[in-house]
Amino acid sequence: MSILEANFDFDKILVNYLNDKEPREHEIGVYRASEVSKCNRALYYIYKSDPKNPGIKQMRVFEVGHVIHEFVENLLKEYEWFIACEEEISKQFNDFTIMGHYDALIKEEGHLAIIDFKTTKNIPTRLYDNHLKQVNTYLHLKGVEVGYVVYIEKNSFKTKTFPIYADKILFEETLLKTKHLHKCLLEGKIPMMEKTPLCNYCNFKKKCFDLYMKEYKR
Ligand code: SF4
Q1: Measured in angstroms, how far is the CA atom of residue 199 from the centroid of ligand 1?
Q2: Can you give the C-alpha Rg of the chain in angstroms?
């Protein structure tokens, strides 16, 4: 009797699927709300390099996020106060554009509100600054006063919601920072370092610190 072959390998299917994904293009002059809070130097390196996907480890994590987003958006569509999801919004500011896709737009008690879902390993105790700036940018692009960030813990499906109110001064700061990035990209000048604890997770850490040492020695 011949032995049956058991060769099914789901991971191979998943990895092939992730490897086939087109990397995100970054066009100078078009800046994403989801990236406005990132360090300008890191953004400069991203915009000046060829588009490429992050490693497979990070892509697996992103895909889990996409699956959860799809589930949550389908759930919201069941309700009468749901208006739209994944709508592209953009606005021109002199010589550059800021654009983005919010996760959901709802109507509550006479006003509109934007919701952004964030999948996370652990529910945070406070709203992260980069998420505040991202949603604040959506609010100004869309002309909406209220927003929410909803954190969803991946392993437990526990959630926590933080409200956000449109903050004009914060948006002005975001615009100034983006304007500076745009100027640096056009003039080919690498922006200053913005040393924060996030440098530990930055893909450009070596390149950035090497440049810093070179500048420091001058
Ligand atoms: S290492 Fe820090 S300062 Fe340098 S590019 Fe990355 S985030 Fe910016």
Answers
A1: 5
A2: 20
